[in-house]
Design a protein that fits this description.
By secondary structure, this protein is α+β, with helices and mostly antiparallel strands. The protein has one domain. Helix content is 17%, strand content 47%. It has a seven-stranded antiparallel β-sheet with strand order 2-1-7-6-5-4-3. Strand 3 and strand 4 form a beta hairpin.
């Protein structure tokens, strides 16, 4: 069970990735609130919803590679953006080897919705996330 919780936390950390990854045309720097729900097919219980706040700097808004909070054993293998979407793929090696992909759709420069799918240790994590700008950074 402990290993399962660690995997969930790793997958949850990857959810910050889309909140910090867009280009300057898609997002406004400032304080963002990110809410994530996670489902694991076959699990007897639902993991609780998580809400975090993150200060997106102007540098993070401009250059997505500078702000990706990925594990040292993980690497972004594909990052694409269009007018109002960003897509990515990630590959992890080591003890938590696996792959993942995600997509974010922006609704103006102050909110978004998206999904992420992570496959590791024979398990699949499906995550839905919403972000909204809530003000200036402290």
């Amino acid at each position: 069970m402990r290993k399962l919780l660690w995997i969930g936390l790793l997958a949850g950390a990857s959810l910050l990735l889309p909140s910090m990854a867009p280009s300057a045309e898609m997002i406004k720097p400032g304080l963002w609130e990110i809410t994530t729900t996670m489902e694991m097919p076959g699990m007897a219980f639902q993991l609780p919803q998580q809400t975090v706040r993150h200060c997106v700097t102007p540098q993070e808004a401009i250059d997505p590679e500078k702000s990706l909070p990925i594990d040292k054993d993980c690497k972004i293998i594909d990052l694409r953006s269009s007018a109002n979407k960003i897509n990515w793929k990630v590959k992890c090696t080591g003890q938590m080897a696996g792959t993942g992909e995600g997509e974010i759709a922006y609704k103006g420069d102050a909110s978004y919705e998206g999904k992420t799918k992570i496959q590791t240790q024979g398990m699949i994590f499906n995550m839905n996330h919403k972000g909204k700008r809530v003000g200036e950074c402290p």
